[in-house]
Each structure stands twice: as structure tokens, then as C-alpha cells.
Amino acid sequence: MSNADADRATPPAADHTFQVDLRGLVDLLSHHLYSSPRVYLRELLQNGIDAITARRAADPAAPAAIRLTAAGGGLRVEDSGIGLTEEDVHRFLATIGRSSKRDALETARRDYLGQFGIGLLACFVVADEITVVTRSAGTPDAPPVEWRARADGRYAVRVLPADARPEPGTTVLLTPRRGSEEWFAADRVLDLARDFGGLLPYDITVADETGRTSLVTDTPAVWDREYPTPESRHSALARYCTETLGFAPLDVIDLSVPLAGVRGAAFVLPSAVSPAMRGKHRVHLKGMLLTESADTLLPDWAFFVRCAVDTEALRPTASRESLYDDEALAAVRDALGAGLRSWLTGLAAHEPERLGRFLAVHHLGVKAMARHDDELLELMLPWLPFETTDGRVSLDEFAGRHRVVHITDTVEEFRQIAPIAAAAGLGVVNGGYTYDADLVGRLPALRPGTVVDRLDPDTVTAHLDPVDPFVELAAGDFLALARTVLAPLECEPSLRTFHPVAVPALLLDGRDERNERTRAQAESAAASAGDDLWAGILGALRGDAPQARLVLNHLNPLVRRILTVPDEELARTTVEGLYGQALLLSRRPLSAQESTLLNRSFLGLLERAVDNTAGGAAADPAGPADEK
Ligand SMILES: Nc1ncnc2c1ncn2[C@@H]1O[C@H](COP(=O)(O)OP(=O)(O)OP(=O)(O)O)[C@@H](O)[C@H]1O
């Protein structure tokens, strides 16, 4: 069949227009777009502000006020803005998704808060009916118009007599839907209006049933006011933080990105927080509170501050509860990050004590920042604290004393080895804390001549004093026995002298050694489970990592006695006991094999002790009394 035949066979397609189910749309908004019904008030304020902005663009002397009256259970919002003609009402109020602000010139559009043409629908989240009485300022001879819209999508428009509303402007009337009454209580309305509208540019008042009227707007913003001294500015901002953000800040940092019209302050948290926590910042858009929980405003590393800012250039999402993640936001984020950084560098140069107070709480944040910023690290090197064998000192100080900076892999390793390494003259930094190993690794580039080395068993052993050759010879039999006891554990015994004397044995066991042991254990487990393929693969991965070392301390009196134990069985048990005790000191998790060894040695020694006491008591009941 040709196309022409087909055209003849089928009737022409009829054009239709999409229908909108308003109830479905409102349900979507209230459950999926807005986080709370409270936003209805923000949308009303915003429309009032935009209407005044539009009127004043043509007539800068036009009145500029928004009056809210919460009375009789309902709410009236009256603005002295541009108003609407009957035609405008059909075009803008009654057409979802159409906004007069989008039709405006680009330059004027930037002055408006709204843009999407859906804001008014937020009122249907709390009310079944919206009544708007409006009179156009742009067409002065146009009569006032009343628009009544219902949540089911029906609306009615009627033209009112001229004296029904003599002045231009718009009044919106809402009566709460059953269950939404709480959002209309005068106190609630005042709180919401203060929260959303406190920084808006035109006067906003809220009146209650008794006629008591409160001013909502409190401008300029606390960060834009003039103060007689820097101290009074600091205290005013700190007070704002306590009242609005709910904590007394450790410090206050002014923020300003003129290109994006961002002004505000960052407040340093009074206690340390997890670097994984995303900051929750309070962001105003041209004065209107957009969100109290913007988490993309600052770089990730700036988790030690909370901000409050007002911005001109950033874009809101349609819910107007978060920022649109675009290039402008990325640029602002970078600029705010640079601001925080220069605050820090300023402190380092001029106010070291203040920097010290800050770092005492937030060194982790600065370390996170310095990982990707050599210049900052260089600047902060004299200030950032690290845990070392010289105590809590800066890397600068530490590198000044130790040409070779040793670093441990874990906190446990540091705890076990630090006292011994320190006594042996080694300089060790605890590399087990977040960011520390990264930063220490960058030290040679910043302080040429400094060497950074991982602390391995060989280095420690080499720094422990060897024993006299005669002592070594005398202990030969015991050490040979210890070698056979420890061989299955892939550990090699040796005898040294070291401090503290109270430590009988030290288990030196670096990362490579541990990895190799885990591999060997997995290989033997696979082999005994008959999994030849896996055992073969693991076997092929065998490393040539050195063995772990059990270094016995010849200065320790108990070790000296153990070296001369004649009973071979007891000597075996004591080797296992010393290994087990050193293992416990290393504070790492025990394998099944190690737990078995610990149990065996502990019970073996206990048995010996009981046997001795029982044997001694049986042979000579008066013995213990004689010893006293
Ligand atoms: N108080 C008012 N005075 C004058 N015009 C108003 C007022 N409220 C609403 N309008 C008109 O109704 C239109 C639709 O308003 P609505 O709040 O739904 O969207 P918007 O403010 O344009 O955009 P957004 O969805 O981003 O808030 C507006 O563009 C404006 O033309």
C-alpha cells in the first residue's frame, strides 16, 4: 500500500492538549519536591518580593512592603507589588509552569527569586483553596481581579469594582486544609517568616489576631553591618552563630566572593568532627533562606566550619531547597576554599596563638587540606602536631633533630616499638593516623636532606645493642631450641640488650612479614581443604619477605634466668610464653594458630607452677615457712 493509500484509509489525527491532574501534581510536590509544608510561606514571600521588584523597576519610588496577617485560622499576605490584570491572571497564575519572570529581560530576570512558575502550587500543600485579589500597577485603569483556585484544578475569575482594591498590589488569602492548621498559627507564621525572610530587601511584617505587629526583616545581614572594632564584629557574628546555628564558634572567618555576590561568614566548630561528615551550611539567595543544610558549598576538606552566606549568582533547584550543582557553584566552592586557606596563612604569619588554638582542635582538617597543597603544608609544617618518639611535636622540629625519620604503619606498631626505638636513638613518627603517613612522605621534598623510611624489623634490630659474644655463645643451646619452636611461626629469635629493662621480648613484625604470613596460612588452609588450585595460586605468590623476629632482652632478669633453664620441655614452653607475651604487646589480632600457642604456653606454665608448689609441699611441708 502506498503512502497516499494509507492517508486515504486512516482519518486525520486530531490535536489534543495535555491535561494536568492538579491533585497528582500537588501530591508530587508535597511528597517529593518540598521537604516540609513550611515552604508554602517562602513561596508567598518570594512572590511578594518579586512583585515589588518588578514594580520598582519601573517606579523606584513605589511602596515596598509585605504584610502578613494570621487571624481567624487563616493567612492573608498583602504586597504592594506590580499586581496582575485579568489577562495576566489567566496567563501566569492559572498556567502551571509559566512565569512572568522567565519572560522578563535577562538583566531583570537576575533580580527575581522565582523562575519556574510552580511556586504558588506550594500553597495547595496546606490549603484547598487559594484566593488572590490583585490590581495591576502596570495598567492603572485595569480593574481589580479576584482569582479563586481549588486544589482539584478548577478556578474562577471575576472582575471587581475599582474600590474593592484602590491601590495596586496583590493579596493572597489561604484557609488551612484540615490537618494543616499548625502552619497558620500566628507564632508559627512569624517564626517561618523570620527564618525565610529575615534578610529580604523590603519590609515584611506579621500581625496576629489582636493586631500586634512584628517586623520580620532585620537587614543588613549581621556580616554586612558596620562595627566600631574588629572585636565587636567578631562578637556579633559569634552571637549570630550561637543563636542561628546553635553552637558557640571557636573562631569566625569572614567570607566574600565579590564576583559571585557571595558574602557571609564561616564559623569554626568548637570541637573536632569526623572528616567524613559533610558540612551543613545556611545559604540565602538574594536574602531568601534557601537551605540550612547545603553540603556542596565548601570543599570536602573544610569539614571544620559551618557557613552562613547570602549569594546573588548561585542557582537554586526547583524545590529551592538546595543549590544547583553547576560551574558557578564549583567556582564559588573553590573561592571559599581559598578564603579559608588564606585565613589560615594569615594566622600563621600574624597570630600564631590563635592558630595554635584552632589546630589544637582541627589539625585533622588542616592535614586533609595540606595533602593536596604543598604550599599550605610548607606553611603549616612548624605548626601541625604529629605523634613521635619525641612526643607530640611538629614535623619541622622532628626533622631538625632526626635526619632519618622512621614511620610505622600502624598505631599499634608505634605504641609497641616507640619506647624501645626511642631508647635506641631512633626517631619514629606514628604513621597510623589518618593523613599522617601521606604528609610525612612529602617531607623530603619540603626539607631536602631529610630521609623518610618505613620502620622495619631489621632497622630496629640493628639499633638494639648486641650482647657480649660469650653471652651469645652461652645462650646458643637455648636459641637453637627457640629457633625450632618459632620456625612454624615464621619467626627468628635473637638476643640483644635494650631498654626498658622491664620488657623481656619484642616481636618485630613489619607489614611485609605479616602479609607473607597471612598468605602462608591461607595456602596451608587451602591445601588441607583439598583446594589444590587455590593453594597453587597462593603458593605462586610466595614472597621473600624476611621473617618476623622475636628479640629477647638480655637486660631483663627473667630472660637471663630462662636462658639457663636445663629442662628442655620447660624451655620450649617459656619460648612460647615469651612469644605470646610479645604478641599481646603488639596489640594486633591473633590468628587461630597464635591463640592455640598462647593457650598452650599459659596452661603449660600454670601446670609447671602447680606441680612445683604441690611437689614442694609434698616433699617438705615446712618448706614455704622456712623461706619466709
Ligand atoms: N504576589 C504576586 N504579585 C504579582 N504576580 C504574582 C504574584 N504571585 C504570583 N504572581 C504571578 O504568577 C506567576 C506564577 O507564580 P509562581 O509562584 O507559581 O511561580 P514563579 O514565582 O514565577 O516561579 P517559581 O516557581 O520559581 O516560584 C508569577 O510568575 C507571577 O507572574
TrEMBL record:
UniProt GO MF annotations: ATP binding; ATP hydrolysis activity; ATP-dependent protein folding chaperone; unfolded protein binding
Family membership noted in the UniProt record: Belongs to the heat shock protein 90 family.
Protein's recorded name: HSP90 family protein
Keywords (A to Z) from UniProt: ATP-binding, Chaperone, Nucleotide-binding
InterPro entries attached to this UniProt entry: HATPase_C_sf, Hsp90_fam, Ribosomal_Su5_D2-typ_SF
Keyword Chaperone: yes
Organism domain of life: Bacteria
NCBIfam families in the record: PRK14083.1
Record has Endoplasmic reticulum as a keyword: no
Positions of ATP binding: E43, N47, D79, T170
Species for this entry: Yinghuangia soli
Pfam families registered for this protein in UniProt: HATPase_c_3 (PF13589)
